Amino acid sequence: MFRRKLSCPSFQLKRNKMQETALYIHIPFCSRKCFYCDFVSIVSGKDMFQNYVDAVCKEIQLRKLDNVSLNSIYLGGGTPSCIPENLVEKIIKTIKKSYKISTNTEITIEVNPESATLKKLNNYFSYGINRLSIGAQSFNNEDLFELKRNHTVNDIENAFDSARSAGFKNINLDLIYGIKKQTLKNLNDSIKAAIYMEPEHISTYSLTIKDITLCDEDMVADMYLSICETLENNGYTKYEISNFAKQGKHSRHNLAYWENREYIGIGAAAHSYLSGIRSENTGDIDLYIKKILENGNAVDEFHQLTESQKEFEYIFLNLRTRKGIYPDEFQKITGCNFVDKYSESIGLLTKEDMLEQINGSYRLTQQGQLISNEIFLMFS
Amino acid sequence: MVDQVLDSMELERERGITIKSQAVRMAYKAKNGDEYLLNLIDTPGHVDFSYEVSRSLAACEGALLVVDAAQGVEAQTIANAYLAIDSNLKIIPVINKIDLPSARQNDVKNEIKDVIGIDAENAILVSAKTGEGVDKILEKIVDEVPPPAGSTDVSLQALVFDSVYDSYRGVIAFVKVVNGELFQGQKIIMMATGVSAEVEEVGILAPDKQKLNKLQVGEVGYVISGIKEISNIKAGDTITDEKRKANSPLAGYREVKPMVFAGFYPIDGGDYGNLRDAIQKLSINDPSLHWEPESSKALGFGFRCGFLGLLHMDIVKERLEREYKQSLLITTPSVRYKIEKKDGEIIEINNPAQMPNVSDINKIFEPQIEANMIVPTEYIGSVMDICKERRGKFIKIDYIHQERAQIIYKIPLSEVLLDFFGLLKARTRGYASFDYELAAFEESDLVRLNILIGGDIVDALSMIVPKESAYQEGREIVERLRKIIPRQMFEVAIQAAIGSKIIARESVKAKRKDVLAKCYGGDITRKRKLLEKQKAGKKKMKRFGKIDVPQEAFMSVLSIEKK
Fold first, then answer.
1. B127 vs B129: CA distance, rounded Å
2. Chain A residues with CB inside 8 Å of B492's CB?
3. Which of A61, B7, B202, B430 suits a disulfide with B12, CB 3.0-4.6 Å?
């Protein structure tokens, strides 16, 4: 359970040797709130933008860590593209001053098609941002209407073209399936349209509200299988249950989550994972700003993971990836022998074709991916 | 003073009925100026609580028979009146609720005379609501009810008519001093249990406890003697002075027969000890509650309890839940069977799982009762219908008065355990009386119904049923399980079988898809917690091969609540 706390202990930690970590910045502002979204954001916040970004910059400076270089930076939200570009620039500049980054550092920003103008994208590129994640959701206008989005298919295409013009060579498209009235056929068409644009990366998620799918379970299963097949047949490799990428273009930032590595979360509602402690900043924007100005700390909850919790997280996160679990890596991290400790579960799952061993690692089969939660339970 | 002041138990106030007797002392100055001390005991009217009534009556000299002016004489009126007559009490008929527009006092007076045989010509007409006539009752009491007959100078004889367990003070006994005196510091002995103690405190109830130095002949009150062991003070026992023992105890009570049986199990197996303590404590306050340990493969250890009726069972369940904070599962009780195997050996089983294979069985015998029912003649048909429904065999019928018949049936014990009595009462508007004697085992056409999950027999759900209802039961159970067992990794096959023959089948489809939600930095903790919670839930389930069956599934099949 979470304990009550005031200051997150990892704050003052010093690293002894150079380590890589991931940095996430949360921009909790949107022009419209989507009914299915469970990220923290508000709609009318224009007057807060400046103060919020100032607070974010302050937190970045205060939480800087020595001997740490950033493998990735991710500006997510909300809709980061709905705040003025100069504020985005300010954030990036502050990061560069406080942390070590290299030309290899992946710097991503999330944008919505309707606010991704050429001018803005050009600016983003000039700040050093090298990856774009576009909230496309669907290439079918009816679906977009159903989702009550603020854009059309046309807007997606324009935004995408602008992105290429601005120089972005690493673009992700977010897609949603299991939308009301969506059929297998029109989902397929939507996916094909996405493929046609040739993004480097595609993320697909089934529509859920509070972890419950709205569509029929079997339909959603069929949709998932269809998506996987289509994408894999068109040069995209599935590297995580819901994420596909062209050769070498996986999301480095998100892999930090899925490979159970550390990350720093800045901003309201942002999560961090450092030294075995998971922490969360307050989601109340006003309070966040206030707390950062007061004492530079806006942590609302934190929890020191037990060894068994760490082990469990390692397993269920890595099983989401196609890389899977390598027993010797597992041994290094947890000190336990994966095959011995979970021999019963591994045996049963392998027999039932839910788990497979490929090239020395254990990963979920196609069938296993469909009911991954049930399988994870067998490792807890 | 609140309304229903003597119905102090929350349950009583809620339901508007009296369950436990309450004793209270009242000072009364009669019209002629004399001062009297009246000890009043308010008793339940419902037939399920007749034991309470008879114990209270043993402590009294007179009784007010209160009849509703609109309803008139009812089944419980008769039952309670006979109890009072049998105890040789002076009975004062009182007709209440004369304020109602539907009141028909004169008719009711005649009913009392005709049906019960008590002269009610001078019955007191009263309205407890308006207060009319109440003073007349008190006058009549002092006029007609004889004073207690005992003497002060002889050895102490105090009748324990009730008791309650207090966690600080131990057992508090409610007594009527029939002879002698009971005072603080006295060394006393319980004549039936032989336990001795010293009186810590005595007093009266007015209606709250009021401490006194002593209780004298004719007084009703309480005594606290530091006795902690519940079984050492029994209702019906006589308290006497250890140094100057009485020659004989006062007449006790006859044991009442339970009419309804059920299995009481703790929902959480770990609570068995607490449930046992609770039932023990409750039973000293309710000696008509019968109980003995029982066990079930599905539910673990529990108790087989016997009650005077369904309302009694209901009240006991609620008291256990409220006063003793128990979470209970109530099951249909089981009986023992005798089996004659093909090789001639006769075995007795008390658990369906112990039944041998169909191929080894020659005959099955089940216990019977001889049911003795007395009803007004207009209900003869109803009674015979019920008995037939319950596989009863007609023995004979006698007409005892012109309007009453006595019907005797032989019925399998398993058919009458739970709701036979209640059904009988319902279909005869409460007028039927029911008594039974255990009779010899008789051969029946019974089979063992097995339930299989994932191809494995679930012993805990096996039951022995009449062949004629096996299909019906099998189908119902399988359907019920299908609704309760959650979808999981593998398909769940649910079957009902008799021997090797499958008589019903349902299945729960395998889960096809989990929610494939995103899992970014802010989702990891939530996801882990969700999985941990699901895992905890699964741990509570019982595993059959690859299938997880929640406890609710067993409860749903075994519980009587569905009926």
1. 5
2. none
3. B7
Alpha-carbon distance of B286 to A326, in angstroms, equals: 66
Q: Does B521 touch chain A (CB under 8 A)?
A: yes
**Which region among A278-292, B311-325, B372-386, B443-457 has the lowest average model confidence (pLDDT)?**
B311-325
Nearest Cα of chain B lies from the Cα of A21 at a distance, in angstroms, of 13
**Category of A67 on φ-ψ map: left (φ > 0), alpha (ψ -120 to 50) or beta:** left
Task: Give pLDDT tens digits for B297-328.
Answer: 777 788 888 887 777 888 898 889 888 888 88
Write phi, then psi, for A214 (nearest 5 degrees). Answer: -85, -30
Q: Give whichever of A123-127, B61-65, B292-296, B395-399 has the largest mean pLDDT.
A: A123-127
Chain A residue numbers with beta carbons less than 8 Å from the beta carbon of B538 are 377
Neighbouring residues of B48: CB distance < 8 A, sequence distance ≥ 6? B307, B308, B309, B310, B311, B312, B315
**CA nearest neighbour of A379 among B528, B544, B509:** B528
pLDDT at B506 over 60: yes
The burial of A30, by beta-carbon neighbours within 10 Å (0-12 exposed, 13-18 middle, 19 or more buried), is given as buried
Cα separation, A17 vs B129, whole angstroms: 89
Q: Which of B490, B513, B517 sits opposite A221 (nearest CB)?
A: B513
How large is the average pLDDT for residues B62-81? 82
**B521 vs A24, A211, A217: nearest CB:** A24
What is the predicted pLDDT for the residue at A194? Answer: 96
Q: Give the residue-averaged pLDDT of B185-206.
A: 88
Which chain B residue has the Cα nearest residue A24?
A: B521
With CB atoms and an 8 Å threshold, state whether A352 touches B490.
Answer: yes
Chain A residues whose beta carbon lies within 8 Å of the beta carbon of residue B518: 203, 205, 242
Please choose, from the candidates B425, B16, B449, the residue with its C-alpha nearest in 3D space to the C-alpha of residue B260.
Answer: B425
Residues B563 and B555: their CA atoms lie apart, in Å, by: 13
**A 245-304 residues with CB below 8 A of B?**
254, 256-258, 263, 265, 269-273, 278, 280, 303
Largest CA distance in chain B: 92
Is there a contact between B516 and A372 if contact means CB atoms under 8 Å apart?
Answer: yes
Q: CA A350 to CA B358: how far, in whole Å? A: 40
Over residues B145-169, mean pLDDT = 85
3-state SS, residue A287: helix
Q: Give me the count of residues in chain A.
A: 380
CA distance B204 to chain A (A): 54
Is B490 in CB contact (< 8 Å) with chain A?
yes
pLDDT, one tens digit per residue, over A126-136 is 999 999 999 99
The mean per-residue pLDDT over the stretch A349-377 comes to: 93
What is the distance between the alpha carbons of residues B493 and B489, in angstroms, rounded to a whole number? 13
ipTM: 0.90
> How far A212 CA lies from chain B's nearest CA (Å)?
7
Cα–Cα dist A50/A38, whole Å: 24
In this prediction, residues A266-277 reach a mean pLDDT of 94
Which residues from chain A sit within 8 angstroms of residue B534, using beta carbons?
A: 373, 377
CB-based contact B513 A220, cutoff 8 Å: yes
Supply φ then ψ for residue A100, to 5 degrees. Answer: -85, 130
